[in-house]
Design a protein that fits this description.
Blueprint: E1 2-7, E2 11-18, E3 21-29, H1 36-49, E4 59-64, H2 67-81, E5 86-87, E6 97-98, H3 108-121, E7 125-130, E8 133-139, E9 144-152, H4 154-164, H5 184-211, E10 216-220, H6 224-227, E11 236-237, H7 241-253, H8 256-260
Parallel strand pairs: 1-4, 4-5, 6-9, 7-10, 10-11
Antiparallel strand pairs: 1-2, 2-3, 7-8, 8-9
Helix pairs in contact: 1-2, 3-7
């Protein structure tokens, strides 16, 4: 079995693969104060709840955009599973030609998403990842990673709104009854949900014009299921895209003999 970690600034996605199949997945809060032992205990608890013994896990892979936590998560995985995870970064085989001016600047999550999107949907394809930031990535018809756009994320923006506007309450982000909100909460929901849907469509259309043709648009990340129905450009919501990309990258980096071993 393969243990996969996608460490973001807000959430760490954890996946457990048996062969190519994702059999379990979880999301835990990113906590800069947790030690490697604390994270290790969390990982062991997740495995126990899934009825999986640590000895059944034969490989591990990690993508992290939180540098202070990368080493912590590496050591936690090593302690609880006895495995050194493959850490996605410069030098990792991905099968993707990165055409960024400085490839080292590209976050590993963006490359992981590109690998999964091209494998699953072909090219050209645009990935919209709704996380701490909203990230737009363009992959050509030949599978080249071309770059993209980065905007403030849904929850990052709304948290700033709550903190700076004293009279605005914290709300649950759900679909409003109408664009013209008749309560403060519905007015905020309208501005947030329809605003981000319009931002998504505007940026995606600009990227489409530069890519040419009609690329597939794939959305991932926690708010994707809320924003996609209000978007005219998103074709598919794929919440597990990054974890599946981690599996694909791990397979490209293990030896043929290791890949053939039963999980």
């Amino acid at each position: 079995m393969l243990f996969a970690l996608d460490a973001g600034n807000t959430v760490i996605a954890v996946g457990l693969f048996r062969g190519p199949g994702l059999v379990e997945h979880w999301r835990i809060s990113t906590d800069h104060n947790k030690t490697e032992d604390e994270y290790g205990m969390v990982f062991l608890s997740l495995l126990a709840n899934a009825g999986v013994k640590p000895s059944e896990v034969k490989g591990a892979v990690l993508a992290s955009v939180v540098p202070p936590l990368t080493g912590v998560l590496e050591r936690a995985t090593s302690k609880c599973l006895g495995l050194s995870p493959l850490v996605v970064g410069p030098g990792t085989k991905t099968g993707i030609n990165v055409k960024y001016e400085n490839p080292k600047e590209v976050g590993p999550d963006r490359i992981v998403n590109a690998v999964a999107a091209f494998k699953k949907y072909g090219g050209p394809v645009i990935v919209v990842d709704f996380g701490t930031a909203t990230i737009f990535d363009a992959i050509s018809k030949d599978g080249d990673y071309l770059g993209g756009a980065i905007a403030p994320g849904v929850f990052t923006s709304t948290d700033a709104l709550f903190e700076k506007a004293a009279r605005l309450p914290r709300i649950e982000l759900t679909k409003p009854s109408a664009a013209i909100g008749r309560t403060t909460a519905d007015s905020m929901r309208s501005g947030i949900l329809y605003g981000f849907a319009a931002q998504t469509d505007g940026i995606v259309r600009r990227i489409m014009r530069e890519l040419g043709g009609r690329p597939r648009v794939v959305a991932t990340g926690m708010p994707a299921h809320l924003i996609a129905p209000e978007s005219s450009t998103i074709d598919t919501v794929d919440p597990l895209l990054t974890l599946e990309g981690l599996y694909l990258i791990y397979q490209k980096n293990v030896s043929a003999s290791d890949a053939a071993k039963p999980s």
